[in-house]
Design goal:
23% strand; 7-stranded mixed sheet; BirA Bifunctional Protein, domain 2; homodimer
């Protein structure tokens, strides 16, 4: 079977959120970003495409080739092709030098690439993420979605304290907005091809997910010094590479589970505001 | 020259905005979105990828094939390819069914596709946009950037009154933040292949740009009923298709020209806050 003859998978139109959903997503994002800011995080703004050569640093094309989407310009030699059946064939394309990220935190490591941190650092960022999935489900499994992250970089102790603190915050917030959150140990294929870290991750899980009815809406992840090493990030006064960890929120999935519980986006928005206010400014 | 042998254009790493730049961009976006809200606009949230079959409705692959970027998954038959020199060749890819938009307002027309508006409508949205350019320039010409838009849909009179009102607001805000804005009539190749509208646009320009030193930082655009027709949007009580117009802001370009004038992002942020406060709540 050649690439051209392989049957095209049906892709639903990527969702456009309506005004009520938009207000709810923005409010949730503001709550999670605010948690980061309250702990001293500032925000950076990453692009939704990177050079393939940058994403390669994180083994994404080795560990996640099935999820990957890459961006290519059209081949214009001989006149631009017209799409047929809603698709351009590979022969219509030029080489792809840009990759669409499947997680947000890559931007944090590339932002600090080649630098020495003066101190333990916390940063927050939100991005559009992209995953080529076998099947899609509205709000729950999207080809493009938004992921807010809070990323810790520096000492191992700092990365672990950050996860402990936000695990508590997510648990309390989930209860306050009426969600039945389950904290579940999960596996992270980031480290599959990295012998020492893979062995360690079998001893101590590197990813925990907060699930609602089996759907992961947030995760806390410890990367040891995988990203620090790949981006040559150091911590002042320390030998070796910086440790990192991240807390990730799948924003559309929060919408999905809150809509299930509260029935409508405006009702869910009230619950989010109440929960944020109860926690205090 | 085949696609595979064509020399690869160098692509700089897409920019990651630092915390001060991020705060400034967010403040600018909030000012422009606030103008829309003050006139009754609500916000919708579009995705940064669409089906190629949806973007085709707007003739983007006929009128802008050189700017287009499309997204494809990797061909996994025979084992996933590894990128060479930071690029996947066309043979490494499967068909591309997703297109990266080069403007934000497409999301507004797709949101209302096939509907009848109850009344004249104003809506606002921001998106990541993508353009395959010959050369890139930091903040001024990016492969991926953010465009805030305010879109009017309904009667022709409504679409024109909207442009008049925001032309005044942009002019006043530009002066308040110290920019030397020039309003310049421009051409819009959207209508190149549409005889009647092309003839009309020669009589009456359909696009005006606000330029700073030759760089367009905002534009006001009238589309007559091009998008209304392509997305079968109607206005209650009217025959024919709805008219549309849009006001667009290139957010990173505002950063570029404000940094030139004010020297630093924190200084520019003060100017933006002062200008917004002077205008009044």
């Amino acid at each position: 079977m050649t690439a051209n003859s392989a049957p095209a998978k049906h892709i639903d139109a990527p969702a456009i959120l309506d005004p009520d959903q938009t207000d709810l997503l923005r409010a949730l994002d503001e709550v999670f970003a605010g948690w980061g800011r309250a702990e001293g995080a500032r925000e950076i703004l990453p692009p939704p495409v990177y050079r393939v050569s940058d994403l390669e640093k994180f083994d994404v094309y080795i560990n996640f080739p099935h999820l990957a989407l890459v961006a290519a310009p059209l081949e214009l030699a001989g006149g631009p092709a017209e799409p047929a059946g809603g698709r351009f064939t590979p022969a219509d394309l030029r080489a792809a030098q840009l990759g669409l990220p499947h997680a947000t935190c890559f931007g944090a490591y590339l932002f600090y690439e080649g630098t020495e941190l003066g101190q333990d650092t916390l940063i927050t960022l939100v991005n559009r993420c992209f995953r080529n999935e076998e099947r899609y489900l509205p709000l729950r499994r999207l080809v493009s979605f938004q992921m807010r992250e809070i990323v810790a970089l520096g000492s191992y102790q700092h990365t672990q304290q950050t996860l402990t603190m936000f695990t508590e915050r997510i648990t309390a917030f989930g209860a306050a907005v009426g969600l039945d959150l389950n904290l579940v140990a999960a596996t992270d294929p980031f480290f599959e091809n990295d012998g020492a870290r893979a062995a360690l991750s079998r001893l101590s899980p590197v990813k925990h997910e907060f699930q609602v009815g089996g759907l992961a809406v947030a995760s806390v992840n410890t990367h040891r010094n995988f990203f620090g090493e790949r981006c040559r990030i150091r911590l002042a006064g320390e030998s070796g590479y910086a440790y990192t960890s991240c807390v990730a929120f799948g924003l559309e999935r929060w919408l999905a589970v809150l809509l299930d519980v509260h029935g409508s986006a405006p009702q869910a928005l009230l619950a989010v505001h109440d929960a944020a206010a109860a926690r205090g400014a």
